[in-house]
Design goal:
Distance between the termini: 31 Å
Radius of gyration: 22 Å
Largest sheet: none
Shape: globular
Number of domains: 1
Length: 438
């Protein structure tokens, strides 16, 4: 009687039921996105925002846990991308309230597009007075600091500003890149003969929805370059090198993949990547050399939502020494992985994870960098961190400090501790399962 049951299971896995279940979960996620989009202010209604976020995470988590059931469901990949796009469009009109970075993008884009230099002069500098208005300028964070973003990021902001200098236009640019990234993840998984439904590890994650489509953070542009570089590493190395350089000159994080890619690229691709990066990063360092440099302030003094770095700072006292220790630890991990001949994707995944956990600054949207590689093998603890990291905005009520809120150490231990406890529990369970029976 075992054979009919197995046949029945196989039929079940390819019939309409799994597809309908996946569609139902995706519809629930889109509904949550619609409800989030209707909130006037996520910061002012933080408790409601976090409750809806948790409901959206439940739909996401169930779909992620049951992804193998949907692998051969009819039109599963279409459902994955349709839900990803619909949920992002539902948040497109949301006015960012948890972060004001989008106004900085608009400001620097307008200044660069009209002949100004956002790297040499901070927004409050007299030289940029003619661009100040009542719509964007009052909402800029750190007006005493000049531009921090690499040259291609600023070029993108300038291009959008020439078309339409509005929050909606910037967010549309971000959503366009983010949707392209979701589609690229599907393509990459299929090329690897892996389960394409695993793309929901990134594409349906509530964190990526609210931070990119909702708040308008620009990371998807660089993430697209990172994923393209990894996907094309062996079959199209020149395109891979160009994508990696473009990503790293938009955000620096794709540099984590460079040591692993250099091992597999042929010499022409290495030369292209290294020459492009040398020119672009040299220009970036030169542009951000001023006394009011945003990059210098970020690298030397900024701290937010850190846990491991909190204890490194206590141990070494000097902030710069602690930051040097972080760089050294990440370099050691990368070096060990290169010596072990880790693949570019697994090496980049490990490097971004370690870098995030040790970083002195861990904004919620930074988690998107390891999440973009989660479709290669979704991890329950990292998925859980995408839920608990939202506590860095406050615990269910708007914090009195407003945008300047920094979570307490106790709150950070909850944020990081719950995923850590899950990881330890899963490791212990695997160890017990591997023991030979008496």
């Amino acid at each position: 009687m075992a054979r009919p049951a197995a046949v029945g299971t196989a039929i079940d896995a390819t019939g309409p039921a799994p597809a309908l279940e996946l569609l139902a979960l995706g519809s629930g996620l889109v509904l949550v996105a619609v409800l989030l989009g209707r909130l006037p202010s996520w910061r002012a209604e933080l408790g409601t925002f976090q409750a809806l976020y948790a409901v959206g995470f439940a739909f996401y988590a169930v779909a992620l846990l049951r992804r193998e059931r949907y692998r051969r469901a009819p039109h599963a990949a279409g459902v994955v991308i349709a839900v990803a796009v619909a949920a992002r469009l539902a948040l497109l009109a949301t006015t960012p309230s948890l972060s004001d970075d989008v106004y900085r993008y608009l400001w620097e884009g307008q200044v660069a597009a009209h002949g100004g230099d956002p790297y040499r002069h901070a927004p409050q500098a007299a030289e940029l007075a003619r661009w100040r208005d009542t719509r964007i300028y009052p909402r800029i964070n750190h007006p005493e600091l000049a531009a921090i973003y690499p040259p291609l990021a600023t070029a993108g902001f300038a291009l959008v500003s020439l078309v339409s200098p509005t929050v909606t236009a910037i967010k549309a640019w971000v959503v366009l890149n983010d949707a392209a990234l979701c589609a690229l993840l599907l393509v990459w998984l299929r090329k690897r003969d892996a389960n394409p439904v695993a793309a929901i590890a990134y594409a349906w994650c509530p964190l990526t929805l609210v931070e990119f489509a909702g708040s308008g953070h620009s990371d998807p542009t660089a993430l697209l370059g990172l994923v393209a570089a990894l996907m094309w590493a062996r079959e199209r190395p020149m395109l891979s090198a160009a994508a990696l350089a473009a990503g790293a000159l938009t955000k620096l994080a794709p540099l984590a993949a460079l040591p692993f890619l250099l091992v597999v690229w042929p010499w022409r691709a290495r030369a292209l990547a290294l020459a492009s990066l040398a020119a672009g990063l040299s220009a970036y360092v030169w542009l951000t050399r001023g006394a009011d440099s945003g990059l210098t302030a970020y690298l030397h003094t900024w701290r937010h939502n850190e846990l491991a770095f909190h204890y490194l700072g206590q141990a070494f006292g000097d902030r710069l020494l602690a930051r040097g220790m972080v760089a050294g630890l990440v370099a050691l991990v990368v070096g060990a992985l290169v010596l072990r001949r880790a693949s570019p994707e697994s090496g980049a995944r490990a490097a971004t994870r370690v870098g995030l956990l040790l970083s002195p600054v861990v904004h919620p949207w930074y988690l998107a960098w390891p999440l973009a590689l989660e479709p290669l093998g979704p991890s329950a603890p990292w998925a859980l961190l995408s839920l608990t990291v939202i506590l860095s905005y406050g615990a269910f009520a708007p914090p009195a400090e407003g945008p300047g809120f920094h979570p307490s150490l106790a709150l950070r231990w909850i944020e990081y501790g719950l995923p850590l406890a899950l990881a330890m529990t899963m490791a212990l369970a695997r160890r017990r399962a591997a023991r030979p029976e008496d």
